[in-house]
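1st attempt posting a full record on here, be nice pls
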Amino acid sequence: MTVLLRFAPSPTGALHLGGLRTALYNHLFAKKHGGQWILRIEDTDATRHVPGAVDGIRSALTWAGLTYDFGPGLDGPHGPYHQSDRLDLYHSYAHRLLESGHAYRCFCSPDKLSATRERLARAGSNSTYDKACLHLTEEEAARRVRAGEKSIVRLNDDRLPQRIPAHDIVFGDLRDAHASLPTDPVLLKSDLFPTYHLASVVDDHEMDISHVIRGEEWLPSLPLHLDLYSCLSLKPPQFAHLPILLNPDGSKMSKRKGDVAVLEFMKRRWEPEALINWLALAGWGQAARSPSDTTPTTRSPDSTAILTLPELIEQFDLASLTHRRQVLEPAKLEYINKHHLMRAWKNEQGTLQHARAIHDLVRASFPSSQHTTPEYIAKVIHALQGRITNIQDVPSLAPYFFVDPDHSTPEAQLMRDFISNDDYRRSLDVTLRLLEAEPDMRGVPNLSSLVHAACDATGLKQKIFMTALRHTLTAMKTGPTVPETIDVLGLERTVLRLKDALLVNGHTTTV
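the predicted structure (as tokens):
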């Protein structure tokens, strides 16, 4: 069987995390099985269309490394890829349903439909429509269409053919849910645009889609979609519905909340590989089980496994997905992002690439600094490895690498108060003399030996000695080791800071 999937967002806003995860799972499954996937734009509701949304979706997918095989900008055998360009196709299928008696035209006005729903509800009925137009003759319906009356096309749920029970790859066998569906669901609206139900069924068939992976919110509609396949004598694809993603507070994730838009994560400089890794593991990680559902058949990654896109493709298994709704935990993204950065920095080219990426940010943060070249930023990144959660944090983590340290902060003042004046001056003076005696010293190992020799020469406890140097050079309690800091600053800037601090503390060094 040829594996072909589709990701079918509506252009009603920015792509959000739930949508990106759906695209990701389509990508993983397709590539795992040597298949392809389509980007299909479901734009049949013109009233909700947001200008620029399609470009935003494509941009987010590109940033995430999810390249679709066919779709807008990548023509292929299944086009066109905007549903608004496929209206004639939907009309022909609606006509087939009308001809077979599986659908009928309804001429009820919106006001009449609203009054009918209210009347049925007051009567305690679960029905949402009284089928008033079901028994119109073909001649009467044709006459009213010719007269220009607006109509919709409804499925006749009194004439549904027998079909196999609904089954979902993630949720398993499903109970009959027809009672939750509206009475005689609308297939074609009065503006001649299809509803999602008709359009998705027609497109999935016409495009030869083998598997439909979509959000759990469409699970209640699965019986209707299977009914349509049956009414049209079409073979349905296999379905897998993904559990809904939740915000940390337990609320449902929605594109109407801007903080879950992929664009926001792009702006905040999260690594695309990390975001994909994080989303992939949200709902994945249950052991895949045998048909008897007793024995795990594959081992799934844990919820913080660090995986590249090729590794995700290799390990992905739809049977490993849980049907439980999943909370997206920001702390896990931070952990995963940090480790993806550390992976990238195992070679100089990867470090320099990130340095170039934040070059403008660093220059904007320190406009007067002369120490903002990409090569210098790469040295800073190297020194901060293991401390950086997000690459955009570099300026706030270690401003002292780019400008003189701010000794007026409460943090710096607490550090200074921890050390007596004599101990402070002695620490700086001895270190300065040793550094000036070794003007060509380079490298962290050599600098580490020098710093420890200076500490021994002072006779002070290491904590006091190192705090004095850290206060002088950085004015911050945490950061790279003192030798690492000196290595990045260079001897000239380090000596200058030591001399300035000694001057401020009433001691003039001998040059």
